[in-house]
Amino acid sequence: MAANSVEETHQPMIFDSLPYYDNDVERDPGLKEKAERLIAREMKTPSGLHPSIPPPITLFANNPLLQAELKRVESHQPLPQLDTSRYQLPGPTAPDATIEDWDAALNNAHAQLEHQRLRLTNLELLQQYGANAWRIHNFQMEATAKLLEKTVEDLKQLTVEVNRDRKNFQTQVGTQLTTLETRWTELISSVLQIEMANVAQEAELEKLGKKEVELASL
């Protein structure tokens, strides 16, 4: 497994490896750490997240009341008690109450009556249409959940297929490379044996030449 870099600051890293077939990690224990450092460097961005990761979502950006309620829930604060004073119908208690005081009490009674009428209307509408609306909502949520689950399963299956194809390809190529490397080793060994035989023959010829000279001198 080898990593060749060309101009690290300008050109991307080029990895030339067969991770499903190579055993370079056993020969170089520090190779895995080097790869992890390269991956960590590629993942670093100014914001600390990868560019493909979307920015965090701000919930209820246009609704301060819901934002405040969300913060209350996140901080585990208790729900404030309801102000029931507005649902009461107190009349003027002062003995010298004016007409304006009685008009204010009367307006409050009218408001409470209208509020109760709206509550009854909403309850009737909820009783008539709420169950079906809730069923439709549940059906839509179930359909969305099934679609997301199917998408996840398809991606998992696609990932498995890609890894399987990659492994088969790398195993095939690795076997060919091993065969070629073995053949190259055999050829190198043959060449070395031939060179050694040539050296031996040259030594033998030199020895015979010396013996010929000695015989000729006799």
Report on this model:
- The protein is mainly α and 218 residues long.
- It has a domain of 52 residues.
- It has four helices and two strands; from the N terminus they run E-E-H-H-H-H.
- A two-stranded antiparallel sheet has the order 1-2.
- The protein is rod-shaped.
- The chain starts with a strand and ends with a helix.
Total DSSP helices:
4
Shape: rod-shaped
Stretches with pLDDT under 50, minimum 5 residues:
1-10
Order of helices and strands: EEHHHH
Mean pLDDT rating: 83
Question: Secondary-structure map with pairings?
Answer:
Blueprint: E1 2-4, E2 14-16, H1 24-27, H2 31-43, H3 64-74, H4 99-217
List keywords for this structure.
218 residues; mainly alpha; two-stranded antiparallel ribbon; 4 helices; 3% strand; disordered N terminus
